[in-house]
Write a structure and sequence with these properties.
This is Chromosome partitioning protein ParB. The chain is of the alpha/beta class. It folds into 2 domains: about 140 residues, Conserved hypothetical protein from pyrococcus furiosus pfu- 392566-001, ParB domain; about 120 residues, no CATH class. Helices cover about 50% and strands about 15% of the residues. The protein contains 10 helices and 6 strands. A 6-stranded mixed sheet has the order 1-3-5-4-6-2, sandwiched between helices. It is elongated and about 80 Å long. The C terminus is likely disordered.
């Protein structure tokens, strides 16, 4: 909580200096810990929307939002860090004027934000958010416009997470799963989505050859999930091959091993026994139990 000496101008000056000092120390700490560059970078709105895929938007009006949910910006990502601490002294006078007004109890206009999931991105009001953090506030008034996206923003923390989301969006374009099946496919490495989409399309091609008919992408996706993914994952789990990986990661690893062991589309006890057998090629692609 910000200290109050009863002199708003002096307190506002101290507020700004304290925020700048914290920003510099945070940057130094990240460098000493060898953290990725994106740890303290504010999330860019355009990159998030591009990764998730925009479907539409709707005005929600004036709301009270959690201050900690404001983690990005439309166009001011270089002026403040992730916690809205100023990255330079260029806007000091404006910042301190707002801080003085806040400390005197003067009315401050609501900020304007875009909402994606539970995250908020500032359109107008970056300095007001920064001052609110300096004063130890937990909420802030905001005019909210919700952005509806093709895939969920859940799990996004840093800029690097957007790459995985982008790969997932492309995967769902190629393999349009729905409902439970859509939620079940989760990969932590973005490139794995590319590999999995290739595998599903190859499976669908073989299926159409076997049945001598054309199947659209939604049908292939649904049948792959029901006839291939669920049975394989069930057997792999029963065989004790899944440790800490997701089911989709387990599936992807096993199908790679399958084509190393056999030249067919068949699953049987012998294949599973070979997968579990110790040897120079076990435990496998990502450390599954052998």
């Amino acid at each position: 909580m910000a200290k109050d000496t009863g002199f708003p101008a002096a307190d506002a000056e101290n507020d700004f200096l304290r925020m700048r000092r914290r920003q510099v120390l945070s940057r130094l700490g990240a460098w000493l810990r060898r953290e990725p560059d994106d740890v303290n970078i504010m999330l860019p709105f355009d990159e998030v929307v591009s990764a998730l895929g925009k479907v539409g938007e709707r005005r929600l009006g004036l709301q009270v939002i959690p201050l900690d949910s404001v983690i990005g910006s439309v166009d001011r990502t270089r002026d403040f860090d992730r916690r809205f601490r100023p990255t330079s002294g260029m806007s000091r006078q404006r910042w301190e004027r707002l801080a003085v007004a806040q400390r005197r109890g003067e009315a401050v206009p609501p900020i304007e934000v875009y909402r994606i999931g539970d995250l908020h991105f500032v359109v107008d009001g970056h300095h007001r958010v920064s001052v609110a953090h300096a004063l130890g506030l937990s909420t802030i008034d905001a005019y909210v416009t919700e952005i509806v996206t093709r895939i969920s923003a859940q799990g996004i923390q840093y800029r690097g997470d957007l790459l995985v989301k982008d790969f997932r969006r492309i995967f769902l374009d190629r393999v349009p799963l729905e409902g439970e099946a859509r939620a079940a496919i989760h990969l932590t490495d973005g490139w794995d989505y590319a590999e999995l989409s290739e595998a599903v399309e190859a499976w669908g091609y073989r299926l159409m050859q076997d049945e001598r008919t054309f199947l659209d992408r939604p049908t292939v996706a649904r049948r792959w999930y029901e006839e291939e993914f669920i049975p394989v994952v069930t057997m792999v789990r029963q065989a004790g091959l899944i440790t800490t990986e997701t089911e989709a990661e387990a599936y992807l690893w096993v199908i790679c091993e399958r084509y190393r062991l056999i030249r067919s589309h068949t699953w049987n006890d012998e294949v599973l026994a070979n997968l579990r057998a110790p040897g120079p090629q076990a435990p496998g692609r990502r450390g599954f139990a052998g």
